[in-house]
Amino acid sequence: MTLRYIVRRFGVFLVIVWLAATLNFFLPKLSGDDPVRTKLLEQASLGGYTQAGIEDMVKVYQKHFGLDQPLWKQYLTYVSNVAHGDLNYSIANYPRTVVSMIAEALPWTIGLLGLTTLFSFATGTILGALLAWPNAPPWLRWVMPPLWALHAIPFFLLGLILMWLLAFQFQLLPIFGGYSAGAVPGWTARFILDIVRHAVLPSLSIVLVSVGGWALAMRGMMVTTMGEDYVTFAEAKGLRSRTIFMRYCMRNAILPQVTGLALALGQILSGAVLVEVIFGYPGIGALLFQAIQENDFFLIQGIVFTVIVGLGFATFLLDILYPWLDPRISYRRT
To answer: What's the whole-model pTM score?
Structure first.
């Protein structure tokens, strides 16, 4: 792979970021709603009356957020702010910034969904590869059908079932939050164990659903790969069955799985929204749900933009890593 290709792919990534920022700016404008006026009217209605001077307050806040400027000037200001990592203030949680709120929720989502995605990928890929192997262990015939059945269940529905079973019936695990109320955050064994206990239920709901999908995809690729001529030639040469399985079949069949893994990792920033909402997990998904409830215009924009950039960056890394994963892939011109 040449440096020129890497630079070109990075340029494509920057174009994706610019397009994401542009769409993220213009699409909400099509509704014609004023987020500041809407939020102030909601707050005024909580007291059962219309607050006096509401229009004056709207004008002040519009000037503060830059919403009183022409659209083209708002756009240039928005793109400039995004380039400098500034996603504006949260309307519902002013004066907190969107970046600070996303930064607080991001580690929770990456910790939960990042680890569960990698674990599901590794487990499902190995089980799917073994399932297609003629010398597969007999116990796989009993393990895989339930996992395939669980794959058809949505995350949040399985989460509710696990909550009823493990939290209400047997009372083994907590049902809400990232850690216990009153716990003091810190790098202590007690606090870390508390975080792990709160993460078990949402993790199980994601892993049990995902493993079957990874296994099914890997099994299909293994069946296809085992019918290739180079596998037949390796068998004719008398190579050991384990060598053929690992170096010829699994190594080639795993490439589409890696593509799926990169896309899945790029999408973890969006969070398993309903899973995080059900368990009250303080991640990006729960933050997005809260922003939608509060009609927090800038926070929704910031989360959507972050998700798109994350997916684009994962695709960029995949393009760079593919030639190292498979030497047959080359981006050089012939």
So the answer is: 0.79
